[in-house]
Design a protein that fits this description.
The structure holds 2 protein chains of 2 kinds.
Chain A: H1 2-25, H2 29-43, H3 45-89, E1 97-106, E2 114-117, E3 130-133, E4 136-144, E5 149-153, E6 161-165, E7 171-176, E8 182-185, E9 198-201, E10 213-221, E11 230-235, E12 244-249
Antiparallel strand pairs in A: 1-2, 1-12, 2-5, 3-4, 3-12, 4-5, 6-7, 6-9, 7-8, 8-11, 9-10, 10-11
Chain B: H1 2-19, H2 27-36, H3 41-57, H4 65-79, H5 81-84, H6 89-109, H7 116-142
Helix pairs in contact in B: 1-2, 1-3, 2-3, 2-4, 2-6, 2-7, 3-4, 4-6, 6-7
The chains are: A alpha+beta, B mainly alpha.
């Protein structure tokens, strides 16, 4: 009997709780909002903490990405400026002389496939002389006149440069790709090329000495439909804006034979200054 | 001690449910059903009141709907435990009744409806998880897998 009384008491209390919900439902919103504030402060505190943490994590993630991108850009800038500083202080020790050569003309179609520089065989240049800028490789001389030379840049479709990954030491062949980028040929699938890797000349082929900066890998992927790894490289040198380059003068290229065919060719609209030969 | 732990579990489930997308199952309802089949009516109604209060805190203007739905459901399920609890599929039946009640009370009171997509997805997930949740709570709180 006593057990039955307890159950009834429990039932009444339970009904009171249910009825409280019913009464609360039909109260006007304003007092309910006011009464909810202290309860929200206490009971929803963990949610606020979790939301704040999630917002912090999201912000830190975005900040991390932004700073990583900035660090990559700064690394490229740093490498370029180091090269500039080294070039300004002393010529690189590659066993050759540097011949400063202003760019006096460029091909009008793309502005970056061929350049004409105001140095030629009288200055010790010859066909095959590498041409560089402080930032990296520009191309090579393909025709040398007495006082000016035609330079085929690394973005010319016929150009190929043997390169080497400076980090993993994997060699490959760089050829012009699309939109001012280079692409690597014959990089085996699975070879170690990663975004951010610096490529330098491999020293193969007898044109470019070993170790000249070429570009930075901006994309590398193994595609199933292709035999080789797909690697996209951004050259360090912005060829279309070059105003001055350096040609590398090897002792054996100082032949003294003058090919004057180019001296009579002036790019349309460009006056080529008649410079006296060096003493 | 067990009712306090049950209330804490309801609180944790509320925090999880409120932090997830609206398309998540009604975790408070699942916990209430599992406890309703084993605890006394008063304890379960108190749990329902607490769970409803928590649910109503996220929308104070319509407070009362959650308390009424959860406490009534808990009381009803606890009252039927000796009548219905012969096999686990009754949990599914109670889950469906609970979902209907949870949505019907705010609609009847004119405080709103979450929308059909959300309601259907949430209801389907709740029904799908009803038996596993009852099994889990039975194992965690009562140390057995068998019903009743």
């Amino acid at each position: 009997m006593q057990h039955k009384t307890i159950r009834t008491w429990q039932d009444w209390l339970a009904w009171v709780l249910v009825a409280a919900g019913l009464v609360l439902l039909f109260l006007p919103p304003q007092p309910k909002r006011a009464a909810a504030v202290p309860l929200q402060t206490v009971l929803l505190a963990p949610m606020r903490v979790v939301r704040a943490l999630r917002a912090d994590v999201r912000w830190l993630d975005e900040e991390n990405r932004r700073l990583s991108a900035l660090a990559a850009e700064l690394a490229v800038d740093n490498a370029r400026l180091r090269t500039l500083a080294r070039g300004a202080a002393e010529p690189p020790d590659v066993g050759v002389d540097l011949v400063r050569a202003p760019v006096i003309a460029r091909d009008l179609a793309t502005l970056e496939r061929h350049l004409v520089i105001s140095r030629g065989t009288r200055h010790g240049l010859a066909a095959g002389s590498p041409v560089v800028a402080p930032e990296g490789v520009v191309g090579k001389v393909v025709q040398a006149g007495a006082h000016q030379s035609l330079v085929q840049t690394i973005l010319d479709p016929d150009s190929r440069v043997a390169v080497l990954n400076r980090r993993s030491r994997v060699p490959a062949l760089a050829r012009p790709g699309t939109r001012h980028y280079l692409e690597l040929q014959f990089a085996p699938k699975g070879s170690d090329f990663r975004t951010g890797d610096t490529l330098v000349t491999a020293g193969l082929g007898g044109v470019f000495p070993h170790g000249l900066l070429v570009g930075i890998v901006v994309a590398a992927a193994d595609r199933t439909a292709e035999m080789f790894k797909s690697v996209r490289v951004r050259p360090f040198v912005t060829i279309s804006t070059l105003e001055q380059v350096f040609a590398l003068r090897f002792p054996q290229t100082r032949t003294g034979d003058e090919d004057d065919w180019l001296d009579n060719i002036g790019p349309a609209g460009i006056e080529i200054p008649d410079e006296p030969p060096p003493r | 001690m067990r009712p306090i732990l049950a209330a804490f579990l309801v609180y944790v489930l509320f925090l999880i449910q409120a932090s997830l997308t609206p398309y998540c199952p009604d975790l408070i309802l699942l916990a209430l059903l599992a406890f309703a089949l084993r605890e006394t009516r008063l304890v379960v109604t108190l749990l329902g009141f607490f769970g409803g209060l928590l649910a109503d805190l996220t929308a104070p203007a319509t407070a009362g709907a959650g308390i009424l739905a959860y406490s009534a459901l808990a009381y009803g399920a606890a009252s039927l435990q000796n009548l219905l609890y012969r096999a686990r599929w009754y949990v599914l039946l109670l889950a469906i009744i609970g979902i209907v009640l949870r949505h019907a009370i705010p609609v009847l009171a004119g405080t709103g409806f979450p929308g059909w997509n959300q309601a259907v997805v949430s209801a389907a997930l709740t029904v799908a998880l009803a038996v596993p949740a009852e099994l889990l709570i039975s194992r965690l709180f009562y140390r057995r897998w068998t019903p009743g």
